[in-house]
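notes to self, project folder thing:

trying the whole complex as one job this time. last attempt i did each chain seperately and stitching them together was a nightmare. two parts in total, labels are on each line so i dont mix them up again. if this works i'll redo the older ones the same way
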Amino acid sequence: MWSRFWERFLNNKLGVVAAIFLLILFIVSWLAPWIVPYDPLAINVKAVLLPPSFSHPLGTDTLGRDVLSRLIYGARISLLVGFVAVGIATFIGTFLGALAGYYGHFVDTIIMRLVDIMLCFPSFFLILAVITFLEPNIWNIMVVIGLTSWMGVARLVRAEFLSLKEREFVLAARALGANDFHIIVHHFLPNAIAPVLVSATLGIPGAILTEAALSFLGIGVQPPTPSWGNMLTIGKDNLDIAWWLSVFPGMAILLTVLAYNLLGEAIRDALDPRLD
Amino acid sequence: MIPLLLGITLISFTVIHLTPGSPTDIYTQFNPKVSPEFHQRLIKLYGLDKPLYVQYWMWLKKLAHLDFGRSFAPDARPVWDKIKERLPITISINLLAMFFIFIIAIPLGVMAAVRHNSFFDKVTTIFVFIGYATPGFWLALLLMMLFGIKLGWLPLSGLKSLSYESMSILEKFGDIAKHLILPVFVSAFGGLAGLSRFVRSSMLEVIRQDYVLTARAKGLPERIVIYKHALKNALLPVVTILGLSVPGLIGGSVIFESIFAIPGMGQLFYLSVMSRDYPTIMGCLVIGAILTLLGNLLADISYALIDPRIRVG
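result (full assembly):
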């Protein structure tokens, strides 16, 4: 299955480009301390609000900090949030979806009611309130985003489990003495991996955008730690005098989100040859 | 709907009241003049000394009479009054945004699907992917920079100009419209990309069906085949998506109202979160949830209107 997956994936040029872009972004942000031209926190009163130039390719901000260096460090936040928040959501969603789909009856009813409630939630409101009360920091943000975005995965896994339940190999496994845990982990979950993988990849951009929006509103990652969202707050305050403070961080968010979306679609197409 | 609403309020109430810290701290912690006795009195006044389930029950009983309680803010106004004057603004902006999403995304998606793999299809696909990835608040900043500062065509913030009171009715209308262009455009933008993509794939699926082939074989003009036979069926899933997009729009209003300084419900929510005004926070959450449920209900009703199979069956 996987060799055919790779073959189809590598044929999708946009998907490959997106994957390479993300790979470079990961390497660059990982190597940030060694490759940034300036210290992202170093204040330099002699270089305040400089437009892009040879020495500062993306300009400097109101405190004379180098925008390119801050952008590279900001990538760490966005990439981390995307991974951890979606990881939490995928774990919760898979767990609850598996319970609902496998056991059915009132377990299913309760969990699916919970899904309905969470889907009706103006979740951005709740995220905002909870993070403000808990004091804004990156760990709280990742956990809260994860706790409010597991519903899609739960539905997917449940649907997959429901369709597997009636199949004969399950009966065979049970006849051979397999318990519930064994059947779920060894027979059901492997079948659900493909749709969950796609939904997780497509969930990452949403988490990145939520974190950026929160930081932009001042209740996300706190200054002086640079994140793309709080860099845009500085951009907003200097909209009339320094365009580079708004344009570049937003561009970084756009490209990263775009790359994840393209990668997610490419994975889906490669896994499911029926789709065009 | 009522059980759903109860579930939503229960979860919000618990989560909001269980997070560490208390609304009374804001008045007392930073104010050396406040005595511990006053602090205790405040806690008692707000009913925060009672067990959580008692507080929830009291809150629920008041809610049954449409009483959201009084705000913890110094003005201590009833929460409903505060929401009432801001709600129409948020709802109008979101309805306008939804209207534009609807009238632009559907034709765009249909045209892309009808000319599958054409140049037009490819261009809209690129547009959709970029639009989908654009953070709304960033787009707002760029547009403010271009139309507000560089060109000076549109106002940057608020709903009315300073000279609003001295304008004629027509001028007043024009003034508000001018202030609304950017906020409405920005809130519509994200949904636009998503929905037109959705219409396209839904339409592509329908066009392959046998009854579309039949309609063509009967010799019906292409226009009727597409817009009457195919589109109606392709719109069914679209209606559900629109209903589900309400929470996103409401959540987005916090961001856009803070960027454009619009005195709507999103801004009220932001301010009440900042001052830990529990009754106002709960009021906004309940209204948000009711709007979402209404969106879903409307989606279900229009579903039945479009699809006779549901009405009969």
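what i see at first glance: The mean pLDDT of chain A is 88.
need to look closer tmrw
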